[in-house]
Each structure stands twice: as structure tokens, then as C-alpha cells.
Amino acid sequence: MRPWILVAAAVLLLGSALGAGFAGAAAGAPAGPVLAASSPVVGNLSGPTVVSTNTNQTFFINGTGGPAVSSAGTLVGNLTWLATIGGTNTTGVAVTPASGNLTPGTPSTTTVSVGTVVQTLTLTVEVSSTNASANVSANFSWVFHVVQPYTLTLHLETGKSAAVAAFNLTIFLDGTPVGSLAIPNLSPSENYTATFEYPTLGLSQGEHTFTASLAQEHGLVTFAGGATSISVQFFVPGAPPSYTVWYVAGIVSFFGVLFIFATRVAARRRSPARK
User: Fold this and answer.
1) Is the CB of residue 50 less than 8 Å from the CB of residue 143?
2) Which of 61, 169, 224, 258 could in theory staple to 181 by disulfide, Cβ–Cβ 3.0 to 4.6 A?
3) d(Cα 113, Cα 87) in Å, to the nearest integer?
4) In order of start, what are the domains of the chain with their CATH numbers?
């Protein structure tokens, strides 16, 4: 065999071996850094659904997930929220604070001042989870109604001999507890006025009763006049009657009479046919 043929064969074998080595190395090498997919951002809002006009209401914000939270649930980035409020008339309506930070498992709070307009409002919160260049967000909403409340005014009196420590006074509506009033420390011979507001989307037609009792205070504080309990009745009228059906029936009857009258007059004016 000629020498140059042996040399060429050796070169080809060496090239094949090198090529196979490079191909194996390329196949085994990673394509680049691979980022693990983060979990979605989850959360919720909670708070009252019916509130009184011109009050401040607290809402709770919860959020977790996204690149800012590890698989173990610990915070490794930034978890923040941004709140906005919407309605037909947002004059006098405000959210304070309008933004903040979140810790998984611990709710953040914001306060909404609702103003004096009766309306439906929507609180929307965007929760953002960021870590380095990764950013994932989600929106959560809470709808609530601003209404003119039923108002109960109570006048309390303390005795001359002793002060009264702060206590909570439970208010009942038709025998069911609907809220409480925080009564502060009262001095001897003090007169104190407490106001209870009950927001509702509506009560059934008929008579209703607010009641409250100071029996647990053992006579140290009473309502005006010395009474230990109070009962206030009020009446809720029904919806005004709708006369729409009667209006329509009257209009139909009126035009029916006109039609009959017109056809009879036309029949009288019609000349008899001549034979």
C-alpha cells in the first residue's frame, strides 16, 4: 500500500474521532441558564359589604405566590399591592394608604373613606410579585354598598357615687344582635350620648324594634330617666304602588271607546244604497 494512502486514512480516522468528541460535548453541554417557573399570584380582599355614609371602613388584603415567594412559602423578593376605588361619584371617597407591602400569610389593611353619596363602590387591588427581572401580578376586587343607615341615639347617665369602666353595649334588632357600641370610661354624674348606625340594603315592610340593656352594669349607669333597658320601635312602609298597568289599561280602553264611537258615527253617515 502506498504511504500517502496510509497517511490520508489516519487523518480521516483522527477527524472522525475529534468530530464525535465535539458532538458529544455539544450534546452534553447545557443550552444556558434555565429559570424555574414561578407559582401564580393568589390573594383576596375582605371587608364589609354594606356600610354607612360618611364613615371609614377597614379592608384586608392577602397575597402570595409569584417569583417573590419561594416554593417553601418564604419571601425572597418584593410582594406589594396598589389599591384604587371606583364608583359613579368618588367625591369625598379615598383609600388610605393606597399601596403597601405584603408578607405571605399576614394580611395588610387599608381604610376607605366613603363620603356622603349613596352608591355602589368597587375596591380593586393589584398584587405584584417581583424578584430580579421577573414580575407577576394579579387583580382582586371587592364590591360594597354605601347606604343611609338607620340611626339610634342613646342617652346614658351615671350615678353620683361611682365611675364606670369602659364596656360594650350590644344593640338588638327584632331580638337579633346587629352590632355593639363601645362606651368609654364614664365619670360620676356624667351624661353621655352614644349613636349607633345600622346600615342595610333594606328591611321588610312592617314594624321593627331596636333594643338595648344595661342590666350587666348593675345600676351604675342607666339610660335617661333611670331605665336599665330601652326599646325603640319604627315602621318601614312598603314600596309605593305601581299604577303602570292601570295607566295602560285606561289608555287602551280610551282608544277602544274612540274606535267604537268613530265606527258608529261613520255607519250613521253612510247613505242607504238605492235600488
Assistant:
1) no
2) 169
3) 13
4) 42-147 (2.60.40.10), 150-236 (2.60.40.10)
pTM beyond 0.90, yes or no: no
**CA separation (Å) from 19 to 11, 31, 234?**
12, 19, 96
- Which residues, listed in sequence order, are joined to residue 156 by a DSSP beta bridge? 192, 223
Which residues are 170's β-sheet partners? 180
Q: Which residues of 183-193 are buried (b: 16+ CB within 10 A; e: fewer)?
A: beebeeeeeee
Please give the DSSP secondary-structure letter assigned to residue 214.
-
Q: Where on the phi/psi map is residue 214: left (φ > 0), alpha (ψ -120 to 50), or beta?
A: alpha
One-letter amino acid identity for 59?
F
Q: Is residue 217 helix, strand or coil? A: helix
pLDDT in tens, the chain (275 residues): 444 444 334 434 434 444 444 344 444 444 433 344 578 999 999 999 999 999 999 999 999 999 999 999 999 999 999 999 999 999 999 999 999 999 999 999 999 999 999 999 999 999 999 999 999 999 999 999 999 999 999 999 998 888 999 999 999 999 999 999 999 999 999 999 999 999 999 999 999 999 999 998 888 999 998 999 999 999 999 877 655 555 555 555 555 544 444 455 455 555 555 54
CB 118 within 8 A of CB 148: yes
Among 78, 108, 76, 79, which residue's Cα sits nearest to residue 95?
Answer: 108
Q: How far apart are CA 159 and CA 219, in angstroms?
A: 8
